[in-house]
Amino acid sequence: MYGFKQALRAWYSRIDGYFLKNRFVKCPYEYVIYVKIKENDDTVIVYLYVDELVFTGNNPKMLRDFKQAMIKKFEMTDIGLITYYLGIKIKQAEYKIFVNQEKFAKKILKKFKMENCAKVNTLVEYRIKISKNNKKR
Predict the structure, then answer these.
(1) Is residue 135 part of a domain?
(2) 92-119 pLDDT per residue, tens
(3) Is residue 17, in this structure, part of any structural domain at all?
(4) What is the pLDDT of residues 56-98, one digit of tens each?
(5) Span 119-136, average pLDDT
(6) Pair (85, 131) in one structural domain
(7) Please, is 112 exposed, middle or buried when counting C-beta atoms within 10 Å of its C-beta (0-12, 13-18, 19+)?
(8) Which of 17, 56, 75, 102 lies 20 to 30 A from 124 at CA?
(9) Residue by residue, what is the 3-state secondary structure of the chain?
(10) Using an 8 Å Cβ cutoff, are 61 and 69 in contact?
(11) Are residues 91 and 111 both part of a single domain?
């Protein structure tokens, strides 16, 4: 399908139909996010970007089943845990996720010839830890 003007539309229509048929709900605010929640609150969240899927959830078996179904139905390849996506570096630990856009920031500085500009503190609180119940640690 690659190379055809309608290839992306055909792909999206096919995968959208698959998700809806398999009881995923399309996010009303972001059309590339699908969510499936079972009766016991087991959840899979899928983000579709062109021909790549990023997914997460709270039940490892449900995630494995989802991955196997996608590999079988769409001949997809599992490239493992996400480490870099759309300019964002992602590092995962057992109970932590670190998100970093340093490479993107350096690219912007270079583009505008500001690599050697004076550094200032960030406006965002540095090294903040947020817990599940929104209390700072």
Answers:
(1) yes
(2) 888 788 888 888 888 899 999 999 988 7
(3) yes
(4) 899 999 999 999 999 889 888 888 888 887 778 888 888 788 8
(5) 67
(6) yes
(7) exposed
(8) 56
(9) CCCCCCHHHHHHHHHHHHHHHCCCEECCCCCCEEEEECCCCCEEEEEEECCEEEEEECCHHHHHHHHHHHHHHHCCCCCCCCCEECCEEEEECCCCEEEECHHHHHHHHHHCCCCCCCCCCCCCCCCCCECCCCCEC
(10) no
(11) yes
Residue 133 to residue 47: CA distance in whole angstroms: 24
Of 74, 97, 123, which residue is a domain's last? 74
Number of domains in the chain: 2
Is 12 found in the same domain as 69? Answer: yes
Q: Give residue 101's domain range.
A: 81-137
Q: Is the pLDDT of residue 136 over 60?
A: no
